[in-house]
Design brief:
Layout lengths: L3 H8 L2 H6 L5 E3 L2 E4 L11 E4 L4 E4 L5 E2 L1 H9 L3 H12 L12 H17 L3 H9 L4 H7 L2 E2 L5 H6 L4 H5 L4 E4 L2 E4 L4 E7 L5 E8 L8 E3 L15 H11 L2 E4 L2 H9 L5 E3 L7 H7 L5 E6 L3 H16 L3 E6 L6 H18 L2 E2 H13 L4 H16 L4 H15 L3 H7 L21 H12 L1 H6 L12 H11 L10 H5 L5 H14 L4 H37 L2 H20 L1
Parallel strand pairs: 12-13, 12-14, 14-15
Antiparallel strand pairs: 1-2, 2-3, 3-4, 4-5, 6-9, 7-8, 9-10, 10-11, 15-16
Helix pairs in contact: 1-4, 3-4, 11-14, 15-16, 16-17, 19-21, 19-23, 19-24, 24-25
Length: about 575
């Protein structure tokens, strides 16, 4: 049985994997689609079933199946590897598994709370009153903290210090307490379905605060966590938009009533870190907010954040005195669907809101309207959007657009990062093509004179890339681009390798042979030219010294070099 990285890459078909997230279309030997990692209208994202690699010629992102999961799911290498291995039933060697005992502790704690809920009548009654039955309790693994922890510690094989590293436990005298005592406990999972923390909701209406969360730990950072993402990520991709609510039970109830592309931001306004995670699945984010002042302020703050992060931010504002949970229970799936269909861009909502609030009938009202909205339009990074909204303010108020532009400073034209496409700068164009031909047809490289001229290569990166290639197993059907990639740590080098593979894949074999042979000839000619140049300099010096013997030696050596070169 094969283990680990090689087994995962052998078993996972990259076209099948990527097709879950990207609509691919056959194009020659490859598949193409719109890149999921940057905004584009023309497909530049390419997947090779032959090489089991993907590459985007727009944002220069590429790699194998593991790299795709890393990028799309926002995981580190080990997490992505473990996720694929688990899905495809591939065992990992013990040495490949990182220490995850804190996940074991949190998972065991979730089981403990879950079993406690089943025997606590008050907690079950509370959930029933909120319309939450057994199916939902089981699906979200809801629990309750109301039992002596000594039983957990007595039966668990996990050391106590691991439990304490979660930040959930407190010591009082000789007793150990958890911070969720007397509360419904809601497990929070990461995208791989591992418990990383908890939310706690009191069932006593007079107890404050109503909600508390796990403190930040090595696996839980509240600002970057999205409750429910492990259950709804596929639906978010399929529908190409995410609905964000603030509360745990808001998310649970919407999910129960058939809104499956929803996540919760853990009781607070959405953060940049949470938006970054959502952008792995969609760039269209809809906030579902209460219509009170807090909800309005939350959406106001989001305008600049959405603009800065190039997100299409929309808003669904609930009727007065309703939250997502209460609205869903009263109106069901049909009511929710209708409400969501009325969503509109956040900035559009504010145009309507402030127009109604201030009015635009008088000069003073127009001034109030302009001064309120102009700062939000100014913060837009996209100048096209900025111009369109300036025009809208102008149309609504009758004030010329040019006057608004005098009030604000245009955002400077964005200069592409120097790091973008860095792999293009690593090798000269000719050498890039040669490397691509070698990787696509190793037999041609083996049978050429390329190995012989390696010692004469001057550029260090080229020499390193070529030397590592010839250190690989180059027998027929044995060479593996993924194994070659694994020889390099620098991401720019990895991107270079992937890009040149795709760039030269469609070349005919004879064309590739000629490219490699011409390159070998070029290297040999360059070496001869260097030697002849050195001899010419020595000859000039000998002639100045009128050293007849030395002049003859140099001319003889020069003649031998030219004869040897011509005979090749």
């Amino acid at each position: 049985m094969r283990y680990g990285i090689d087994a995962v890459l052998d078993k996972v078909d990259i076209v099948d994997l990527v097709s879950r997230y990207v609509k691919l279309k056959k194009s020659g030997r490859n598949f193409v689609g719109l890149c999921p990692f940057h905004k584009e209208k023309t497909p530049s994202f390419t997947v090779s079933p032959e090489k089991q690699l993907f590459y985007c010629f727009g944002c220069h992102t590429g790699g194998n199946a593991i790299n795709f999961v890393m990028k799309y799911e926002n995981l580190d290498f080990q997490d992505a590897l473990e996720s694929l291995a688990k899905e495809y039933g591939i065992p990992l060697k013990e040495w490949q598994k990182k220490t995850i005992s804190i996940y074991d502790a949190l998972g065991e704690l979730a089981d403990f709370y879950h079993s406690n809920l089943k025997i606590n009548e008050a907690a079950l009654k509370y959930l029933k009153e909120r319309g939450i039955g057994w199916d939902t309790i089981e699906e979200f693994k809801l629990g309750f903290s109301g039992k002596d922890l000594s039983e957990l510690f007595a039966t668990s094989k996990i050391p106590k210090d691991i439990f304490f590293s979660t930040g959930i436990f407190r010591i009082s005298g000789r007793e150990v307490h958890d911070i969720f005592w007397g509360r419904i406990v809601i497990p929070i999972f990461d995208v791989n379905g591992r418990v990383i923390g908890f939310g706690g909701r009191t069932i006593d209406k007079d107890r404050m605060p109503k909600y508390i969360n796990s403190p930040d730990s090595q696996v839980f950072q509240k600002r970057s966590v999205l409750f429910g993402i492990e259950k709804t990520k596929r639906q978010i991709v399929e529908k190409n938009f995410a609905i964000v609510v603030e509360g745990y039970f808001d998310m649970i109830t919407l999910y129960k009533f058939g809104v499956k592309n929803v996540v919760a931001s853990l009781g607070t306004a959405i953060t940049e870190d949470q938006i970054k995670k959502l952008k792995n699945y969609t760039e269209n984010i809809t906030l579902m907010l209460d219509s009170d002042d807090a909800g309005i302020r939350s959406a106001l703050r989001a305008i600049e954040t959405f603009s800065n992060m190039n997100v299409n931010g929309e808003i669904v504002l609930l009727p007065e005195n309703e939250d997502p949970d209460s609205f869903a229970r009263k109106n069901g799936h049909e009511g929710l669907s209708f409400l969501i269909s009325k969503r509109k861009p956040v900035i559009d909502y504010y145009f309507d809101y402030y127009k109604q609030k201030y009015g635009i009938e008088t000069v003073n009202k127009k001034l109030a309207f302009i001064r309120t909205l102009l700062p939000y339009v100014e913060k837009m990074r996209d100048n096209v959007h900025k111009m369109l909204y300036m025009k809208r303010i102008s149309e609504l108020t009758g004030v010329g657009e040019h006057l608004f532009w005098d009030e604000i400073k245009n955002r400077p034209v964005e200069i592409p990062s120097e790091e973008e496409g860095n792999e293009k700068k690593i090798l000269p164009p000719v050498t890039r093509v040669v490397l691509g031909c070698m990787l696509n047809d190793p037999e041609l490289a083996v049978n050429s004179g390329l190995r012989e001229v390696l010692k004469d290569l001057k550029e260090r990166t080229t020499k390193d890339l070529f030397n590592k290639f010839f250190e690989m197993d180059l027998r027929e059907d044995q060479f593996n681009v993924n194994k070659y990639l694994a020889e390099f740590d620098d991401q720019d080098i990895k991107n270079l390798i992937i890009s040149v593979v795709f760039e030269t894949q469609s070349l005919e074999r004879e064309a590739k042979r000629k490219i490699i042979d011409d390159y070998v000839k070029y290297i040999k000619e360059s070496l001869v030219r260097e030697k002849l140049k050195g001899l010419t300099e020595r000859l000039v010096s000998a002639e100045k010294q009128r050293d007849e013997r030395k002049i003859l030696e140099i001319l003889t050596e020069k003649k031998e070099i030219l004869r040897a070169f011509r005979s090749n």
